[in-house]
Amino acid sequence: MGVVTYSQEITSVVAPSRMFKALFLDSHILPKIVPGGIKSVEFIEGDGGVGSIKQTNFGESSHIKYTKHKINALDVENFYCKYTLIESDIKFEKIDFVVYEVKFVALDNGGCICKMTGEYHSKDSAELKEDGIKQGKDKAMGLYKTVEEYLLANLDACA
């Protein structure tokens, strides 16, 4: 099994506590933020803590109907989450599973840097192409920017 790792950083003017809360602790609000893209977010196992399984159901226009993630680590005080993509309706021919780590680091200006790492674990010795991984990275970046815009327009949200 091979592993391809990518890292990226996104800078935000929103405080790390609010970004973390919107994306991980109160993720059930994501359908309100991205109404056409996300239908619902629900825990199908657990209460949101370590070991919980979260299912995200996507809108009609998405090429993915759902994903399931298992929370491996959650550090609320340090705005850190590690989770594994364990299931999707999309059949991954070359990918066995994907592990993500996300950490929000405070900046002096009140904003934050979101540091994301993804480990793509391939089946057998399959070669993973950068193009497919890049599409996923771009979608994640788009979601984070949409959440940022929502939080800037709704100062009481996730406060």
Please explain how this structure is put together.
The chain has helices spanning 16-25, 30-33, 130-153, and strands at residues 3-12, 38-45, 53-58, 66-75, 80-88, 95-106, 112-122. The chain has 159 residues and is of the alpha+beta class. It has a seven-stranded antiparallel beta sheet with strand order 1-7-6-5-4-3-2. Helix 1 (16-25) crosses helix 3. The longest helix has 24 residues, at 130-153. The chain starts with a strand and ends in a 6-residue tail after the last helix.
Shape: globular
Class per helix and strand makeup: alpha+beta
Distance between the termini: 42 Å
Can you summarize the main beta sheet? 7 strands, antiparallel
Q: State which percent range the strand residues make up.
A: 35-45%
Features:
159 residues; alpha+beta; seven-stranded antiparallel β-sheet; 3 helices; 24% helix
In short:
The protein is of the alpha+beta class and 159 residues long. It contains 3 helices and 7 strands, in the order E-H-H-E-E-E-E-E-E-H. A hairpin with a 7-residue loop joins strand 3 (53-58) and strand 4.
